[in-house]
Design brief:
This protein is of the alpha/beta class and about 270 residues long. It has a single domain, classed as 3-Layer(aba) Sandwich (Rossmann fold), CATH 3.40.50. Helix content is about 40%, strand content about 20%. It has a five-stranded parallel sheet with strand order 2-1-3-4-5, sandwiched between helices. Strands 6-10-7 form a three-stranded mixed sheet, with no helix packed on it. The protein has a two-stranded antiparallel ribbon with strand order 8-9.
């Protein structure tokens, strides 16, 4: 029985597709509060992560590995944060974790990640309130050292460092950054209408730093947690908040700080 050229082409395509190598899947874990008093932290950051992964997938067609992310809630509770950290560390596909966005939960989870050799990016928490550890990469500003920018708007509760009438943020108001507005233009499609806050800017940059490190590690062969940690020490990413790189204490020394005035809101 003869086959038409079109049929033979289809069969050949199916055979070649079946023989094509399967690209390994790796994950970035996002851990933040999605329930309770601090639940808005998770919902501010989550859409920015989705956008960052979408942007990476568009730019990385044909890359050696596929990168996805998985989100967990720690409810802003240190006990649950340690338990969730155990779940994250037990997933061999997770190469790096971004979290936990509060000082208490970040510290509670840190020992778990260290024991598992899992690099942790810690945004949104003042760097000088976290210890220098080999597996911890501090993205937040140092309250005693960071360059400060004043914002004449109601206080945005971004960092746990607010005083009466003043608080500090690790990102500017969205309306002050045309680049951030253009980058996060698809945010409301994912958030179902909720506009991005300064935390979305932080979330985008954190996700992009993690993705850049995975790409660097994959360029040297099959990526691992140790390779991603080494790559994070080499990353230099031009983010929405500035050029991000880490010093020998795994701290972003150039992290900026915004000082918001008047009264705080929840």
């Amino acid at each position: 029985m003869s086959r038409s050229p079109s049929t033979l082409a289809l069969v050949l395509a199916l055979v070649l597709g079946a023989c094509a190598p399967i690209r390994p899947l790796y994950k970035i874990a996002l851990v933040a509060p999605f329930e309770g008093r601090w639940r808005q932290v998770g919902y501010d950051v989550f859409p920015a992560f989705r956008l960052a992964l979408r942007d990476h997938a568009r730019k990385a067609k044909g890359a050696r590995v596929v990168v996805s992310f998985v989100a967990y809630t720690d409810d802003a509770d240190p006990v649950k944060a340690a338990q969730v950290a155990q779940q994250v560390a037990a997933d061999p596909e997770v190469l790096v974790v971004i979290g936990h966005f509060l000082i208490t939960t970040t510290l509670a989870a840190l020992a778990v990640y260290e024991q598992a050799g899992l690099p942790m990016l810690a945004p949104h928490v003042p760097a000088d309130q976290l210890p220098a550890r080999p597996w911890l990469f501090r993205l937040g500003p140092s309250l005693s050292e960071a360059p400060r920018h004043n914002v004449a708007q109601p206080c945005y509760p971004a960092l746990q460092s607010s005083t009466f009438g003043t608080c500090h943020s690790d990102a500017p108001p969205l309306e002050s950054s045309l680049r951030a507005q253009a980058t996060l233009v698809g945010f409301t499609d994912i958030s179902l209408g909720t506009p991005p806050t300064p935390r979305a800017i932080v979330g985008w940059d954190a996700a992009q730093v993690a993705l850049a490190a995975i790409d660097l590690a994959a360029a040297e062969g099959r990526p691992s947690r140790a390779k991603v940690a080494a790559a994070l020490r080499q990353v230099r990413y031009d983010g929405l908040l500035g050029v991000i790189s880490f010093d020998d204490q795994q701290r972003w020394r150039a992290a900026p700080l915004w000082r918001w005035s008047t009264t705080s809101h929840p």
